[in-house]
Amino acid sequence: LIEAFVSAGRVDNVAMVMGLHPQYLSSFWKTQYLLLRMDGPLPYHKRHYIAIMAAARHQCSYLVGLHMEEFLQVGGDPAWLRGLHCAPQKLRNLNEINKLLAHRPWLVTKEHIEALLKTGEHSWSLAELVQALVLLTHYHSLASFVFGCGVNPEEEQDGGHSCRPPSPHSDSSPASDDSTGGLRGKEAMQEVEVLMERMKLLRESQLEEAGVTQEEMETRFELEKTESLLVAPADITDHSPQSSILCFVEDPEFGYKDFTRRPSREQAPPTFRAQ
């Protein structure tokens, strides 16, 4: 934590969470430091912009905001932050492989690499591309960590928490974070209670229907669980990503698609098997 503070002048919330597991934080911090601050073929501002592109694919506003600040601190052009369309063509050419690595990595082929290395005005050197791809995959993974641990924005970021008491607000302004969080917490508890009630009813029906197989009961339970998870609280039914994130994403509809082979006339996508 001291190293993080001395290097960056702050200890971000990711480091605070990982600090619960010091050995893991130490390994992570060394990796992060090598990727972003040590010698390498890519200039510092481009490294942070690639991090923004990767995090934006997963709509991770925490990481996008963090690296927008870092991008400016190392001398990045503020115009690039208007969106991917304002970045140099060389960086924009990463969009396709960023999209695939984020959502369907088994579709990446050697042709994607060849296209980026092809000689021309906006071509990548092999060393640059290797560092860019490591950054992309690193931040795709880190976005999952941020979502999985529920990491909050930094104090100075939009939606960030601080130690100051909430300021008074008019009827037209949004409610404070504490009140909103409290409401969402209550709704989450209500959803859990509903799910538990459904599970109880399923167990009771199992006793009544002695003829039902275990497989049938498991199928019913999975259906109930899925339906429960699909019901969103009233105040967060709008899942559309913020425009500040969408501007770094091309083809936002592209996402994960199940690649499991099933008997079908359609040709199944190739699968990457590791054993």
**Total E-strand runs:** 0
Which consecutive residue ranges, at least 5 long each, have pLDDT under 50? 161-179, 232-239
**Could you tell me how far the N terminus lies from the C terminus, measured between alpha carbons in angstroms?**
37 Å
Number of helices: 12
Largest sheet: none
- Level of helix content? 55-70%
Radius of gyration: 23 Å
Structural class: mainly alpha
- Mean pLDDT value: 79
Shape: globular
Residues in β-strands, percent: under 5%
Order of helices and strands: HHHHHHHHHHHH
Oligomer: single chain
GO biological process, one term: regulation of response to reactive oxygen species
Region (Disordered): 156-184
Family: Belongs to the sestrin family.
Subcellular location: Cytoplasm
Protein architecture, described:
The two termini are 37 Å apart. Residues 161-179 and 232-239 have low confidence and may be disordered. This protein is 56% helix and 0% strand. The radius of gyration is 23 Å and the shape is globular. The protein has a domain at 41-149. It is mainly alpha-helical and 275 residues long. GO terms for molecular function: L-leucine binding; oxidoreductase activity, acting on peroxide as acceptor. It catalyses: a hydroperoxide + L-cysteinyl-[protein] = S-hydroxy-L-cysteinyl-[protein] + an alcohol. Residues 169-179 have a biased composition (Low complexity).
Architecture blueprint of SSEs:
Layout: H1 2-8, H2 13-18, H3 22-36, H4 44-57, H5 61-73, H6 89-92, H7 95-103, H8 110-117, H9 126-149, H10 177-208, H11 214-230, H12 243-246
